[in-house]
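Researcher: Structure prediction, please.
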Amino acid sequence: MQEAQKPAAKYALFSSYASHTLSQDLDARKRKITDRNLPNALLQSPEFAEDSAMYRDLLQMERKLDWTMTRKRVEVHDALQRIIPTTRTLRIFLSHTVSGQPWQREGLEGEAAKPNLETGENIPAWQFRIDGRVLEIPNQRAKDRVPPRKFSTLIKHMVVELDRDTTLYPEGNIVEWLRAPNQPALDGFTIRRKGDTPTKIRIVMHLDQQPEQYKLHPDLANILGIKEDSRTGVIQALWNYIKTQNLQDKVDRRVVRADARLRPIFNAETAYIQHLPELVNRYLLPPDPIILHYTLNPAVPPPEKPSAWDVEVKVDDANLKSRMQHVVVSMAQDSARDLTKLDEEIALHIQSLNNAQMKRTFLRAFADDPRGFIQTWLESQSRDLESVLASGPSEGAMVRQEDLKRTEFFRLPWVEEAVAIQEGMRLAAKAGL
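Model: Predicted structure follows.
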């Protein structure tokens, strides 16, 4: 009989702990757990020292990787805000059409062949057209293509000069176009004039390049070996020359000592590094414009195909930015979702380890000293009960006497557990455990 009562006491004690642990696991699954650190008991245990050290190394590596990914993401976002220069080919088309010319009126008779000043019919005239487009990148995927820029967005200033007899055509021989803010973008320009004489046309274009390009003064161009570049590119080329020639001062690294070629540029024996941009600005000149020549002869039919010129132009690499933006957005969404899922799984495993360690500590303490463990457990439960009831022990009682007089007191959820523990203690004492 006594032997049969021993398991009953143990069952009552373990069932209480198991129900408490199960409720913790359920609560943990309901809320998101973010703690991924191992319990201190496992970290300090010699049995798990090697595994704990490996896990800590993984956490340290993960923190370094997260920092690197964050830094790279910031660098990509910063790069998207700046200009990423690339060289593209701008193809410029020049063409013309004519109307009312004598060779077009051949075969007409009477009034149909005469010029009409009121309607403008049969009056000799011509139309000159300037078009342009940026050529597409060869073998580019369709999804990577971006809408091409309009021709007028690549030009800052354009002048068209018409070489005509000023006595016959005194006005409109110079046409100037200057891009203004909020001006609609155009694919081309059209110039209409009246006349039937051959005309030589000179087109002067100032391109709008990104970043802005400059022509170097011959004195600096001969040293650096470049004729045209951006301000940043020129400063970088000068700095590369200084490092190649070992012109940086050995003691004060802020000072550059000029050699025989740089002495006329610096106009001194030395110069500070922070003054290099100012020195470079003195030798930057506006770039040479694009000059095209075209001959328009209304006396003969115009060519079937337009004349074309290819010009290299520096532009912002919209294709690369589009790909970078797509990669950043897609990776941010996919990786964030996957990493969050993995973090939750790791946190749940850590919580399971924590619960397993608590069970292991509980059972080991009970196996080492059953009687002392039960006594400590009961004292702990009594203190918890006093805290819940907000009252201290009075005359050896665990609860207030006035509460024991109410029948509702014995219907509380913890009463059944307390009775099971007390009964387990009684049976254990009776059995002599």
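Model: The longest helix spans residues 318-368.
Researcher: Thanks, that helps.
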